[in-house]
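Notes on consecutive records. When two proteins share a document, each keeps its own sequence and its own token line. Never mix them. Below: protein one.
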Amino acid sequence: MHDRVAAQPQPFVVNRDQIPSLPDRLPSEGLERAFVAHPRLAETLRSEAAGLSWLSLCSGQRMESRRQNEPGLLLVLSGEAELIGTSGKLVERGDVITLPPNQEYGLRGVGPQGFEALHVSFRVEDLRRNDKTQRQTSLKDLMAENDRRLHAWLNTG
């Protein structure tokens, strides 16, 4: 007799256009696509300790200033934008922007091909709760692991 082997989950591709855009944005403010709005991605991202969303701006589009309660990162995937706020700094592909909690920031797409970034937010209370049951990881180790995953992802397509 042959034992049945449970099917292993296979990689599943989600095109960014399949991720619903957030409804509270005006068309002039670009697109923000929260990964948890897509059922397959939400299933994969079961942790409540982090949130992911895709930001997309055309050249000249402006994401109005915002302030969030949790710390975060913006990983610039393509294009260029002006970081609006205290610095007015130009950011481009490959840059990582740290977003401290309660710090106001905004973006304006300035490059001819627009601007795309991955926004990662860290829910501090959930992280503290999880620290009691999981091993602690230093920020340096976390950034190195995220860098490794980003490079692997960028080299797959």
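Protein two starts on the next line and is unrelated to protein one.
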Amino acid sequence: MTASRPDSWRLVKPERRSLRESVVDFRDGSDDGSEHTERQMVPRIALFYSNREVLRSFDSLVAMGALELIAFSLDSFAGPGDSGNKARRGWKKDTSFEAVVIETTAKAGDKKLMAWLRRMIPETPILGYGAPAPGQEQAGISLYLTQAPTAESLPVVLYDAERHHRLARKTSLLSRRLRDTSKRLEILSEIVATANSVLEPRHVVSVIMSHIQKLIPSEAWSILLVDEKKRELTFELALGEKGQDFSDIRLKIGEGIAGWVAETGEPAIVNDVVNDSRFQGRYDKQTQFQTRSILCAPLVSRGSTIGVVEIMNRTSGSRFTKQDLNLLMTLVKPAAIALENAFLFQKTEKLAITDDLTKLYNSHYLGICLGREIEKATEERTSLAVIFLDLDGFKGVNDTHGHLCGSRTLFEVGDILRRSVREEDIVARYGGDEFVVVLPQTDGKGAFSIARRIRQALNEHELLHDFDLAVHLTASFGVSSFPEHGSTPQDLIQKADQAMYSVKESGKDAVAVAGS
């Protein structure tokens, strides 16, 4: 029997509920002639056996009253299919033992039984009966017995088994905590790395939330950003069954749980939204999503709240915990800095490629975009077209109404161009009163039709309403296409420009295609 006696030991703590009282009578009589009864604590042990010889080896201990033995057929509990399931279903949940002894066999069901016992009675030590093959020791076994213990050695065996079991559980708990901490540090490190490398806001949001989801799995989440001018929250990104339905929703600061968090800068954990007065159920009706619980934290960077992270319905219906909230608060601190850095970079980059007057792309960025689109069209064997236009009579607006009106006119023309083309099309101010439109996946014929549509929209528009004026302008248009009229940005712009000048020379306010 592999059990060593400690320097000092005690049988069992009296409060252990698995112990049963067995009455042993000592009737020698006392000095006054009366009889008395002394109570002795008897351990209750479960035995899972396959060989009946193992069961019989405990007979002497039972006969002596040294233990209470509850025997189970190993074949019944560890057996395959319905037989094993039926036996396990018959197990009473409140069943408790001082220890469990399992006969060591090579059957596949033993591991399944071990896992089941660990779930049912996690605090009870398990002993193996029979020496395992070298290297085949099974996880979860506190001690191995080579024979049934004697009455004298039984207390030592039980003591050692419980001591080893408690040590193993403590080690397992510490190991799990270490793994959790390591995982959190790894994810925190990845978020910090994102802060230093990714500068596209939506990519930053996606990376951050994918990491948070690993630690706090949920049915849905969203990141809302603060619009300081309108005092509103807008959904930057939402993920979940109804995530796409949130794109047009705006919340007032202070409205709903997310609005409250944005207003106060304090996090919130709500596990029953129905009984929280801050919850706005109308958004669930709008999206057909059922919110049960919410974990919400502010995104604070450099002392200002720039947004809110909102996590809905923890996976498997479990509740959000204080630990979840502390974890989220730890993760959103670097996340907020990463997000703000991305927005600052985006703003700076936009200023570098945007025409300050019209808010369209500038000529420098036009050349870059057109070069990329030519490469893409070459690889995909698709068409590409360019429209070059110059306003007719713009100098007269400046001369008659002043340069302030002239600048406003250019802005309004740029707005007409933006509204007349697709989102993927590229609109730029080329210089002065000249504009260029790049049309991916569009041939010369299609570009001619679009140029005519822009011409009509410009002719019908009354400019400078804000100045109590009604100015009408026309424009001359030239069209070129890839690959017919060139294979470089310079070629396409030059051919479109030449076509535009041919319109100027023949009366203005028309559209011409290069080479026609």
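For the record: The chain has three domains: 20-170, 198-346, 363-513.
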